[in-house]
Amino acid sequence: MSSDHDHQLPALTAAERERYRRHLILPGVGMEGQQRLKAARVLVVGAGGLGSPVALYLAAAGVGTLGLIDNDVVDVTNLQRQLLHGTSDIGRSKLDSARDRLHDVNPHVVVKTHAGWLTSANALDIMREYDVVVDGTDNFATRYLVNDACVLLGIPNVYGSVFRFDGQASVFATPDGPCYRCLYPEPPPPDMVPNCAEGGVFGVLPGLVGTIQATETLKLLLGLGDTLAGKLLMIDAYGMAFRTLRIDRNPACPACGTREITQLIDYDQFCGTPGLHSNAETRVREVEPANLRDRLARGEPLQLIDVREPAETTEGIIDGARCIPLATLEHEAATLSPDVPTVLVCRSGMRSASAARQLMARGFTRVESLAGGMMRWFDG
Questions:
Q1: Is 346 a catalytic residue?
Q2: Which range scores top for mean pLDDT: 197-206, 238-247, 350-359?
Q3: Whole-angstrom distance, CA of residue 9 vs CA of residue 34
């Protein structure tokens, strides 16, 4: 990948030459390559499971400016896979934790933090400062946002995703390659794909996929080897199998093909983010955990249906709840009474909202979804 910085590559200090000695003797990197890395600017979207290995390895390799965007704080459940953060960081901003860790890894690297979420309003302004964008997000709305912004700006998008034991990686939005929309023209229904908080993720998998993303980023910056542009690397950590699929650029793609997309859109609406359903037929009523506790304490007759997978209920289940996984609800709905008030429960409130809409479509009129799911229920 050529860089606007090539004509004024920064010199390496004596300390940097010592630090990067193994790169300087490596064919394809050498002094000029290391200078190109020092001149490079990479934005990592998300300082979590994927962003951790990406940022750590790019900092260690000497990428001069690392941008990080996140708006979350460190939670104890992050520590199983998000190695940027430690136990002492619980409750801290992920950006503060990441900055401190990266400066410890390599004090020569500039870490630029962008507090907040990436949105249609700020994406172009933030991303145009960088040479490569690494997508370490875990939701479809942000993936489409990153893709479209990268296509509009002409910046490579190094993609990765993880779920349970499966991972994917690719490089999108290169000058001649496909973009994310060529692979996934439309997002899946929002309630059909649980996130990692609901479905789990094998702790080492983000390290595996994120390291691949870091590898592809360095190759792009150095102009080395064959990248994953035009290919999708699929990783099965359970069976330890790797498979590569070819991705062709779609001439009808509205982003990189016809170029119909000339500005960023409302990606929550495009992806059908729960909570946007506003007409009376699809609006799902929610019940707050405290209200549900009161109703249960009063002995109010309720059909309490937990639509999580059985393995998820080992974390705890509300007394009296019946476990009917979302995938089997359509079949099991005939065993429920449409005349009895029904409360649907899942981990975060996404799948229960989908379940509520399914029952409403079958004529159930007294249906509610537990707001925030079991995560809020456990919080009291």
A1: yes
A2: 238-247
A3: 9
SS3 assignment, position 42? strand
15 token code pair: 């300390």
C-alpha R_g of the chain: 23
231-236/166-172 β-pairing: antiparallel
Give the whole-angstrom CA distance, residue 230 versus residue 219: 15
Q: Is the pLDDT of residue 279 over 50?
A: no
Catalytic residue among 182, 196, 253, 271: 196
Burial of 216 by CB count in 10 Å (0-12 exposed, 13-18 middle, 19+ buried)? Answer: buried
According to the model, what pLDDT value does residue 189 have?
65
Catalytic residue list contains 256: no
Dihedrals φ, ψ of 16, to 5°? -70, -40
Q: 6: which residues sit within 8 A by CB, 6+ positions away?
A: 36, 39
Cα–Cα nearest to 345, from 316, 312, 308, 320: 308
Q: Are 350 and 188 a contacting pair, CB within 8 Å?
A: no
239: Cβ–Cβ under 8 A, 6 or more apart, which residues? none
Q: What is the enclosing helix (H) or strand (E) of 146?
A: helix 140-153
DSSP 64-122: SEEEEEE--B--GGGGGT-TT--GGGTTSBHHHHHHHHHHHH-TTSEEEEEES---TTT
Give the length of the chain: 380
Active-site option among 150, 179, 271, 346: 346
How much is the average pLDDT of 85-89? Answer: 96
